[in-house]
Amino acid sequence: MVTRTRFDDSECPVARSVDAIGDWWSLLIVRDAFDGSRRFGEFQRSLGVAKNILTTRLRTLVAGGVLESVPASDGSAYREYVLTPKGEALFPVIVALRQWGEQHFFGPGEPHSELVDRRQGQPLRAVEVLSADGRRLNPDDTTVHKVPTR
Amino acid sequence: MVTRTRFDDSECPVARSVDAIGDWWSLLIVRDAFDGSRRFGEFQRSLGVAKNILTTRLRTLVAGGVLESVPASDGSAYREYVLTPKGEALFPVIVALRQWGEQHFFGPGEPHSELVDRRQGQPLRAVEVLSADGRRLNPDDTTVHKVPTR
DNA sequence: CACAACGGTTGCAACATGCTACCAACAAAG
DNA sequence: CTTTGTTGGTAGCATGTTGCAACCGTTGTG
């Protein structure tokens, strides 16, 4: 086969997550959904993606339980795509990716969109990995317990 | 053109991050690097990826400053691939993805690999998004400041 | 020196991506 | 109610990318 390799049966949660999202477009769709996009046309204009691609990605995300297709909120006969709780749980992933990008791909004065705390208008604190008792962990402070392949 | 669309000039940091990583294989390579893999063959066996794919992905990651190619630590003439500081900064992204996967893609008793605190052997605390003053933020508590497109 | 392991490269065939054109259902204006 | 524009797609095509398998030089090993 030459289809893209699937990871949905991996015992590694990272692999399954990656598989469920599907591709980068899907992740940017989720980003836009966090940012308030709901309609097909909104996603299309914001992303500049071809409509057939957007169609398949939205379908995949709905099938994967990340998005949900609901009747439009303005009473029209169209439909809208909104995040499910499972989709909303991707928030830390998107924020972490955003912060990584901010730190490494923009020059000091280079403008970029910014995610801020709505209540105070302040940028967010950097996402951290913490131990059960609250210590800040670096990669070296952790280790992976592999499950025996049986 | 039919090349995959690039996002490296987007003003959105999420898009640039996504573009820099390249594809899912690359992310899994980074995951394995956090898990201690260093050699070409280690990545290849762990991922089961075709060698030509692995070759190009490693090259892309090195070019993007995520990995670095260094002389092998065992004194042999081979080379190894290790994370740069920029690559290590992806740690929260991987952990967040892992936790999302754990929560949504495994049955209660289904076995999966697990990332634990090395010192105490305990699973990690869930990654959270916090405001500057430490409040836990949900997606609705935040808003994106878009930069004018000029 | 022989032989295996390592780290690739090359050449396909199949699939995915992206573009453009097309189209049906809906909405708004007249 | 008819015209016109918007919304949300589908269909077809050219090209790019993926994955497999075969091959190959270099390095380590007995």
UniProtKB/TrEMBL annotation, chains A, B:
Q: Does the keyword Transcription apply?
A: yes
Q: Which keywords has UniProt assigned to this entry? A: DNA-binding, Transcription, Transcription regulation
HTH hxlR-type domain boundaries: 12-109
Q: Which GO terms describe its molecular function?
A: DNA binding
Q: Which PROSITE patterns match?
A: HTH_HXLR
InterPro entries assigned: HTH_HxlR, WH-like_DNA-bd_sf, WH_DNA-bd_sf
Indicate whether Signal appears among the record's keywords: no
Q: Which SUPFAM superfamilies match?
A: Winged helix' DNA-binding domain
Q: Which domain of life is it from?
A: Bacteria
- Give any Pfam family that matches: HxlR
Question: What PANTHER family does the record point to?
Answer: TRANSCRIPTIONAL REGULATOR, MARR FAMILY, TRANSCRIPTIONAL REGULATORY PROTEIN
What is the protein named? Transcriptional regulator
Species of the source:
Streptosporangium nondiastaticum
